Amino acid sequence: MNILYINLEYILEIIFFISIFLIFYTYFLYPAVLMLFSFKKTHYLMSRSNIEDYTIGELPLITMVISAYNEEKVIKEKLINITELEYPKDKLEVVIASDGSTDQTNSIIKLFKLKNLKFFELPRMGKVNVLNKIIPKTNGSILVFSDANTIYNSDALNKLIPNLYDPTVGCVCGRLKLINPNNTQSGHGESFYWLYETWIKKRESKLGCVVGANGAIYAIRKSLFDKMPSNTINDDFHISMKILEKGYKVIYESKAIGIEKVAPDFNSEFLRHVRDGAGHYREIAHLTGLLNPMKGISFFSYVSHRFIRWLVPFLLPVMFFCNLLLIQSSVYMEFFILQLLLYIVTVLTYLLQKNNIPIGYLRIPLFFFSINLALLIGFIKNITGQQDVIWTPTER
User: Fold this and answer.
1) Which one of 136, 147, 306, 378 has the fewest beta carbons within 10 angstroms of its own beta carbon?
2) Gap between the Cα atoms of 48 and 375, Å rounded
3) 93 has which bridge partners?
4) For residues 319 and 293, what is the distance between their CA atoms, to the nearest angstrom?
5) CA 57, CA 236: separation in Å to the nearest integer?
6) How far is it, in rounded angstroms, from Cα 233 to Cα 229?
7) What is residue 218's three-state secondary structure?
8) Mean per-residue pLDDT for 194-221?
9) For the segment 215-255, what is each residue's pLDDT rounded down to a tens digit?
10) Do residues 275 and 233 lie in contact, with contact meaning Cβ atoms separated by under 8 Å?
11) Whole-number pLDDT of residue 43
């Protein structure tokens, strides 16, 4: 009986420390490893860094693709923004598909005179099915994906497109800057997360393996686009990772900037993370090729940056439960008290930010636990089939 107890305690300790290590690894150690790599690896891209080095005749025809659902509040501003882009207008095709919009989105688009605009009015089918339907009808050799509420800097395309002149690059992701005009506390937390993710993307880019493009601003070779499974939720992640799976580089261009407003409140942002979480777990089945260690750096980055992160919502309760069973030891008692304090502080911080009371650096544990709770809910919604591909965007 004593031997059985000792063995059980030993197993609990192993599980406890493996959980701690994996959480620490994916959020802290992996970025540190990337930083070490970045000292040794130089950026492989061509020396010509912007489009001004090319004559107009050499520039490729590109297609900007936008799927819009009830975007009457932002679509006119987006159309005006497109006219202000510096990329030659005769080399820029714009394809907008209305995904069953029921507001004034369609009317606004029809009234706007935009050169080389193709507009499709489709029944409600979800963004992934919209993209599958309209991309074969595009003419550009390069596809630029954008959201209706993303405003590009005038030179964004000029900075984005030249990266694809390197034949080894299949996808390039621009930089999304989040602004917080209402100064919400939840918005500050989201902005901090994007700063962290941007830092990682910059280092992954030097290895040619940015793990997931952002749908607001990224470009791919049209020849690399494959029809997506109809149950895909995160189209941007799926498209960019399939390109990485094929052996092409996926990189990050910090000078190609798109701007969006943060979600108006914590709940809106949380629901978006739940949906993204469901989509990420669904992608595991679609990206089995990247779980092959023979993929080298692509395997390393995918597992380190994403796959292990998707385990964290399960590692946290496992760590807590193991800690509870080991509590008779003073060392484990200290660990347990620390965990309890973190959860209590997170709940109190949530209540403070809900009333828009400044929370400073306390937004970091709040965001960490909330995003992992969202992933857990997303996982449940995915395996129970509750997460539909059709999505109503958060209020803007």
Assistant:
1) 136
2) 41
3) 63
4) 27
5) 30
6) 9
7) strand
8) 93
9) 999 999 999 999 999 999 999 999 999 999 999 999 999 99
10) yes
11) 46
**Can you tell me the distance from the alpha carbon of 323 to that of 253, in angstroms, rounded to the nearest whole number?**
43
Residue 47 has what pLDDT? 38
Residue 266 has a pLDDT of: 76
The pairing of strands 151-152 and 249-261 is: antiparallel
Compute the half-sphere exposure of residue 230: CA atoms within 13 Å on the CB side of its CA.
Answer: 2
Task: Give the number of other CB atoms < 10 A from CB of residue 43.
Answer: 11
pLDDT band of residue 46 (cuts 50, 70, 90) is very low
**186-191: long-range contacts, CB 8 A cutoff, minimum separation 24:** 186/262, 186/263, 186/265, 186/266, 186/269, 186/353, 187/262, 187/263, 188/363, 189/353, 189/363, 189/364, 189/366, 189/367, 190/262, 190/263, 190/269, 190/367, 191/262
Return d(Cα 350, Cα 149) in angstroms, integer.
27
- Backbone dihedral region for residue 390 (phi beyond 0: left; psi -120 to 50: alpha; all else: beta): beta
Where in the chain does DSSP place strands (E)? 62-68, 92-99, 117-122, 142-146, 151-152, 169-179, 217-221, 249-261
Other residues' Cβ atoms within 10 Å of the Cβ of residue 357: 10
Query: What are 110's two structure tokens?
Result: 């029809």
Q: Provide mean pLDDT across the span 94-111.
A: 96
Backbone angles phi, psi at 163, to 5 degrees: -60, -25
Q: How far apart are the first and last CA of the chain?
A: 61
φ, ψ for residue 233, nearest 5 deg = -105, -50
Scored b (16 or more CB within 10 A) or e, 84-120 reads ebebeeebbbbbbbbbbbeeebbebbeebebebbbbe
> Which strands, in side-by-side order, build the sheet including 117-122?
117-122, 92-99, 62-68, 142-146, 217-221, 169-179, 249-261, 151-152
CA separation for the pair 26, 48 (Å, rounded):
34
Task: Name which residue leads in pLDDT, 185 or 244.
Answer: 244
- DSSP 3-state assignment of 381? helix
Q: How many CB atoms within 10 Å of residue 153?
A: 21
pLDDT at 42: 47
Reported as a single tens digit per residue, the pLDDT across 103-148 is: 999 999 999 988 889 999 999 999 999 999 999 999 999 999 999 9
Q: With a threshold of 0.85, does the pTM exceed it?
A: yes
Amino acid at residue number 219? A
Q: 183: pLDDT confidence band, cut at 50, 70 and 90? A: low
